[in-house]
Amino acid sequence: MKIPAIKHLVETQPLQALVAAEEAILEEQTLPFAVPGEDEGEQLTHVLAAIFILNHMQDHQLEFKEALREYTKKVRVSIS
């Protein structure tokens, strides 16, 4: 997971495009736009993170940095 890649997706892609990218990765289809990542797993991680962050920003009226912090907390809990 690379924070700059996630930030780039949040800043450049609307939610619908990110959802389409998630579906394309899961269906092993061509991505509708370039997604940073060394492989499909990392690309999917970046897309899912960007989706979470955009939704969290909208639902809670947060800035990117705050929503990113919430996402990283969620990840830490899931791997501990």
Task: List its traits.
mainly alpha, DinB family protein, DUF6952, 80 residues, 74% helix
Helix-strand layout with pairing:
Layout: H1 3-12, H2 15-26, H3 40-60, H4 64-79
Protein name: DinB family protein
Pfam families: DUF6952
InterPro entries: DUF6952
General description of the model:
This protein is mainly alpha-helical and 80 residues long. The chain has one domain. The chain is 74% helix and 0% strand. It is built from four helices and no strands. α1 (3-12) crosses α3, α2 (15-26) runs antiparallel to α3 (40-60) and α3 crosses α4. The longest helix is centred in the middle third of the chain and has 21 residues, at 40-60. The chain is globular.
Content of β-strand: under 5%
How would you name the oligomeric state of the polypeptide chains in this document? single chain
> How many helices in DSSP terms?
4
Overall pLDDT score: 96
Output the structural class: mainly alpha
Short description:
Helix content is 74%, strand content 0%. The chain has 80 residues and is mainly alpha-helical. The relative contact order is 0.17.
